[in-house]
Amino acid sequence: MTVAIGTTLAIETVGVTRHFGAVRAVDDLSLHVPRGSVYAFLGPNGAGKTTTIRMLLGLTRPDRGVVRVFGEPWERPIESRFCAGSLSSQANC
Fold first, then answer.
1. Looking at the domain covering 9-72, what would its CATH class be?
2. How far is it, in rounded angstroms, from Cα 28 to Cα 88?
3. pLDDT tens-digit map of 33-73
4. Cα distances (Å, whole numbers) of residue 42 to 5, 29, 87, 90
5. CB 68 within 8 Å of CB 75
6. 50 forms bridges with which residues in the sheet?
7. Using CA atoms, how far apart are residues 47 and 78, in angstroms rounded to an integer?
8. What confidence tens digit (pLDDT) does each residue in 14-40 have?
């Protein structure tokens, strides 16, 4: 995998917003995840967790804002996206 030189962030989003019709699924999200960190998305249904993950994986586009993975803009395919996985589950408590 090729990583941009000097990149200290694995994931960076700045002002990311995504709408589905009149519904605002993600609103002005800025997130900075350092390389080597483990993060989880927790929240109620409809909070934008899955939409955010889909944007990070390049499966859907943000309406506005910047998404970078290892310093590369999401529009530019990088090998890490082909090796990325996502696991979601719902607790039955």
1. alpha beta
2. 23
3. 998 888 888 899 889 999 999 898 888 899 999 999 888 88
4. 31, 14, 13, 10
5. no
6. none
7. 28
8. 999 999 999 999 999 999 999 888 888
Convert 9-73 into a string of H (helix), E (strand) and C (coil): EEEEEEEEEEEECCEEEEEEEEEEEECCCCCCCCCCCCCCHHHHHHHHCCCCCCCEEEEEECCEE
Q: What is the DSSP letter of 75?
A: T
Q: How far apart are CA 56 and CA 51, in angstroms?
A: 9
Which pLDDT band, with edges at 50, 70 and 90, does 7 fall under?
low
Written as six digits, the tokens of 67 are 């998404």
Domain ranges, ordered by start, for the chain: 9-72
pTM of the predicted protein model: 0.77
